[in-house]
Amino acid sequence: MPSSTQKLSIRSLWKVFGPHADYILKSDWRRKSRAEVQKETGHVIALRDATFDVAAGETFVVMGLSGSGKSTLVRCLLRLVEPSQGHVLVDGEDILEYSGKRLIQFRRKKAGMVFQRFGLLPHRSVLDNVAFGLEAQGINKRTRLDRALEVLQAVGLEGWEHNMPYELSGGMQQRVGLARALAADPEILLMDEPFSALDPLIRRDMQNELMKLQERIKKTIVFITHDLDEALKLGNRIAIMRDGAIVQIGTPEEIVATPSDEYVSEFTRDVRKAAVLPVRSIMTPPTLRVYDWQGPRVVLHEMGEAKEELAFVVDRDERLMGVVTGRAIAEAAQNGVASIKHLMQEPPIVVSADSTIEALLAQLLDYDWRIEVLPVVGADDELVGEVHRASVREVTLASKAGQPAALGQTQKGG
Amino acid sequence: MAQLRETLIVESEQSPTTGTSANETRRGWSTLLRITEGSLLQPVAAPLQALLALPKWVWLFGIALLVGSLFNFGRAAEVPEGLLIGATVARGVDRGVDWMVVNWDTALRAFNVTLLHYLILPLEKWLMGLPWWLVTGVVALVAYRMTGRVFALLATGMVVLMAAFGLYNLAMITLTIVITSTVLAVALGIPTGIAMAKSNRADAVIRPVLDLMQTMPSFVYLIPVIMLFGIGKVPGVIAVVIYAVPPIIRLTNLGIRQVDSSIIEAARAFGATGTQVLFKVELPLALPTLMAGLNQTIMMALGMVVVTSMIGAPGLGIEVLNGIARLEVGRGLLGGIGIVIMAIILDRITQGFSKSRQPARRAAG
Ligand SMILES: Nc1ncnc2c1ncn2[C@@H]1O[C@H](COP(=O)(O)OP(=O)(O)O)[C@@H](O)[C@H]1O
Ligand SMILES: [Mg+2]
What we know:
A: 2 domains; 6-stranded mixed sheet; elongated; B: mainly alpha; MetI-like fold; 0% strand; binds adenosine-5'-diphosphate
C-alpha cells in the first residue's frame, strides 16, 4: 500500500461512464479495449486502472490526447466525478470513503482546482470570486476579503478586485482562477489544462509565473495538459495517458529519451529535444585525460597512442584545469619544458553535464566553434565526459526534422 | 445545372409530338416528373413528387378513408353504447368535488379568510390609501430607472389618462389582485421550478400537468373554484394563480438548467453544498430567465382580469363585463383601455428589470 511520504496515492482507479458500470467492471468487458466496450455496450471506460503517487511539493503532469481521460482523472481526485473502483489516498486517507460532509471539508481545505474554461462566477466581482471558497466555509466577510486581496496580489492582480470577470482578458481571468484555488491555502493544487485556452504568449507568461510562484508556495500540483512542451517545462514527473490508461510515468528526460511505446514517441516526436535533454545524454567518456603534473613527453606519448590532437588536463581531484593541443606539447617537449601546466589553455567553453543542449547551443552561438570536441564537467567541475560537435548537430537536426534522435547510442556517457 | 435544365426543357418540348409512345409509358412516373420539371407544369410537379414519396401505409390509409366514405354503415358507424363512460366519469368528479366542499369546509374557509384578511385586503387598503399623484410619481420614477426617459413620460401620461377616465380606483383593485396572485404564483412556482430542474423525474411528472393547465380552457376550472371558494376576490386570485403559474415554473426550470455546468462544477469543487450552489450560483445566474417568467406571469394575470370578474372579483374587469351586459360600448372600451395601460406599464418595467440583469448572463458564455 501507499508509502507515507507520498501526498497523493492513486491506486487502480477506474471510471466507467454508463448505467451499468459495475457490471462492466465485474465482467470480461474490463479487459476489452475502450473502443470495443463503447461500441458494444455504450459504456465509456474513461479511466482504466490508473496507479501513481505524487510526492509533497511535486508538480505531477498528466498528459494525453483529447479524450484520453485526463479531466476525468483529475475530477476523480475531488470526487467531482465519482470513481467506479479503486482508491484515492490523500495523506494516507482514502477520500472515496469520506462521507458527504467530510468530502466537502476536504474540497474546502485540502485541495484547490483551476479549470480550463476558468469557471468564474460571472455575476460576482473578482474579489468575491476569489473569496468564494472561504465564503462557502462560512468565514466572515472581513477575513475572507482580506485573504482574497492577499492572493490577488500574489498573482499580480491588485487593482482589479472590483472588476467583473468579463472585464478581464483571458490570462487575467485565469489568474483569478488561480487566486481562487489558492485562497484557502490548500496543500494540493489541481489544474485541468489551465492555460490551454490562452494564446501562446500569455500561456508562456503564465507558465513562468506558475513556476516562480511554486518555488515559493511549494504545493503538490497535479497539472493536466495536452501540450508536451508545457509538460516538459513544468513537470517534475509526467504521466502519459491513452484511452484512459496510464502508459508511461517518468521524468521529462525519461519520457523524451525513452518513450515506452509508439504512442508516447508520437507525442515526443515534435518536441525540441535540445530544450529538454541534458548535455549528459549526448556526451561520451573523455577519450584522453592527462594530469597537470605530468610532463610533455608523457602526454605526447599518450596523445600519440590515442591518436588525439587534444587532451583535457585535470588535477588530482579530477577537476578540469584546461586543454592542451598536440602542437604545443610537441614544441614544449623539444624545448625541454618540465610540466604541462604552462602549456594549458582555457577551454573555450566549459559545458556542465546537467545543462540542456539548448543552453549549450546558446553558448556556442557566441563562439566560432572550430574545435570538434568540448569537455563536459559535473557539479564539482570534475571532468565527466566530452561532447562532439556531431552529436549536438544530430540532436538539433533531429528535432527540427521531427525525427527521433538516435538517443540509444548517445546515452552511454551518463 | 443550367445545362441539365436545358436538356429537360428540350425533352419537355419534344414530348407533345412524341405523344404516348410505348417507350415513354414504360419509363413511367419518373420520366413524367422529369419532363415536367422546368416546364409550365413545374408548380404541380413538386407536390406530385412529394405525394409519390409518401410511404405505403399512408396510401393504404387514404384508400381506406375513400372506401369508408363510399359505403353506408348504418348504426355500425356509431360509437357502441358499452363504450360510453363519459357521464359516469363526470358524475364521479361531481361527487368528488361535493365531497371536498363538505369535508374540507373548515380548512377552505380558513384559507379563504387568511388570504383575504392577511394579504388581499391590507394590500388593497394600503394601495387605495395612497394619493393618486404619488402612485403616478412612483410609476414614472420606476419606469425611468428601468427603461428610460421616453417611456417614463409615456407611462405618466397613460396613468393620468386612466385616472381621468375615472378608472384609478378600479385599477388599484385590479393591481391588488394581480400583485397577490403574482406573489402566490412566485411562491409556488419558483420552488416547483427548482424541483423540476433538480430532478428529471419531477420534470417528467410536472411537465404534463403544466401543459394541461395551459391548454385547459380557464372556464373549466372556474366552476370547481367557485364551489370550493365561493365568489369574490379569493377565488379570483386562485383562478389567476392556476392560469398564471406555469410560465414562472417553466422558466425557473429552464433558467436553472441553462446555467453553465462548468460554473456549477467549479463551485462544487470549492466545497459549496447543494444549497449554496442553488442560492449563490444557480438562482443568481437564472435570474434573467426567472424575470422573463415573472413578466409572463404578470401578463397572464392581467389577461385573466375580465374572467375573474365573472366570479365576482372587482376591478377593471367589471367595467368590461358591464359594458358587455348593458351594451355600453364606450364603458367597455374604457375598461379595456385601462387593462391595456396596466399591461403596457407592468410589461415594460419588468422587462427592463430583466434586461438590466443581462450583462451577468452575457459573461456566463
Ligand atoms: N459525463 C460523461 N458521460 C459519458 N462519457 C464521458 C463523460 N465525461 C467524459 N466522458 C468520456 O470519457 C472520455 C474521457 O474524457 P475526458 O476525461 O474529458 O478526457 P480529456 O480530459 O483527456 O480530454 C471521453 O471519451 C469522454 O467522451
Ligand atoms: Mg479535458
